[in-house]
Write a structure and sequence with these properties.
By secondary structure, the chain is an alpha/beta fold. Helices cover 39% and strands 18% of the residues.
């Protein structure tokens, strides 16, 4: 017996849930000229079957249905594409797709509404459970104790409340929290994922982003940064006569100095952005206000303390997810950027940076740097799912 439920608009579905998910995935592949590999195909099949079971309330006599699906694999293996296709097809009115950093910021803000009450985190989790039936969590990873404590307890309550969860990650569950200083405190969450989730490995062995660099470009990477007082950056960013220079902005009640800004464009410095402790909410604020941004002064990550490198990686995570049009100006070529670096997770960041159009020894701006300009594609049809 197949499960047939209503779509988010309330109309009865004409096809089973799993069939609907598979069809939508195939439609997206055809529209983009991609061909799924075996691991991606298996993942969408299992996601569709799991959702059909969840929505239909079907389970065995002695076994509860999985609380969620945990999809992990290396960078560029198609995890986000698979999850996004699944999310779009899911016939659930109360559903959300969230990114790691933005969701943690939201969680902390919502907890403030219950300040002074017992267990604010559990209250927020139950409030969230009353709003969503399906939560898709992209880029799940744990690098500090605050994240570990929040995510561990949040998952427990959401599972108890019956929210269906889908997570994508670069890490298999037992490697989610590599820092030994607080790994013990995250072990219960790892055990919960391993016991209550279907854990799928999505690893076709190739980073498909490498095939789609020109098509997927979301900005540009320039090296070496010219010693021209910023003239090239001003020109490429399109700063005009109305630009304000050497300004101090108030970002979430903290000062941040910018070289210049005009309208929705800003020119910032690497040291100012990352050498001072800043939160994900600061980067979210900046990207919201300045969707076109140039960041100069970037050197090899090994030249910086690990916390500075980690903040840069967090920024790239957020910028990529929020479709920032980014220009990076560095002293070294991209492949030398990570030399000597101690930050965790640089492989994922490097995969994303490789999608920037690389511009060595820049002398004059090109049309590809104009916001919204489309790079010429060297992507061949049927090459796999790149993200």
């Amino acid at each position: 017996m197949t499960s047939k439920v209503q779509d988010p608009q309330g109309d009865p579905l004409s096809e089973a849930v799993a069939q609907r998910v598979r069809r939508h995935f195939d439609d997206l592949l055809e529209a983009r000229g991609y061909q799924a590999d075996a691991a991606q195909r298996a993942a969408i099949e299992q996601l569709g079957d799991w959702l059909e079971t969840l929505l239909g309330g079907r389970s065995g006599w002695f076994r509860r249905p999985p609380a969620g699906v945990y999809l992990w694999g290396g960078v560029g293996r198609g995890k986000s594409f698979v999850m996004d296709a699944f999310f779009a097809a899911a016939p659930v009115a109360g559903k959300r797709r969230v990114h790691f950093h933005a969701f943690l910021q939201e969680l902390q803000q919502r907890m403030q509404d219950f300040a002074g009450q017992s267990d604010p985190l559990a209250r927020v989790a139950r409030e969230l459970a009353g709003q969503v039936q399906l939560l898709c969590f992209d880029e799940f990873h744990v690098h500090d104790i605050g994240d570990a404590m929040l995510l561990g307890r949040l998952l427990k309550v959401l599972v108890e409340e019956g929210v269906g969860l889908v997570c994508t990650s670069n890490y298999r569950p037992d490697r989610l929290c590599p820092n030994p200083l607080y790994r013990e405190r995250f072990k219960p969450a790892i055990a919960l994922i391993e016991k209550r989730f279907s854990v799928l490995s999505l690893d076709g062995g190739e980073d498909y982003r490498q095939r789609a660099t020109a098509l997927e470009a979301w900005g540009s990477y320039h090296w070496p940064q010219p010693d021209d007082g910023g003239a090239l950056i001003r020109q490429r960013l399109g700063l005009g006569e109305q630009a304000l220079y050497d300004q101090v902005l108030e970002v979430n009640h903290h000062p941040l100095r910018v070289h210049a800004y005009e309208g929705r464009r800003a020119w910032l410095d690497f040291t100012e952005l990352f050498a001072t402790p800043r939160s994900a909410s600061d980067y979210l604020w900046l990207i919201e206000h300045f969707p076109q941004m140039a960041v100069g002064g970037l050197g090899p990550l090994g030249d910086y303390p690990s916390d500075v490198s980690q903040r840069f990686l967090n920024f790239i995570d957020i910028a990529y997810d929020r479709a920032l049009h980014l220009q990076l100006y560095a002293s070294v070529a991209l492949e030398q950027l990570a030399e000597g670096g101690k930050a965790v997770d640089f492989a994922r960041t490097l995969s994303r940076l490789r999608q920037l159009g690389r511009v060595p020894l820049v002398a004059a701006p090109s049309a590809a740097d104009s916001p919204g300009a489309e790079a010429e594609s060297n992507l061949t049809p049927n090459c796999g799912v790149p993200t």
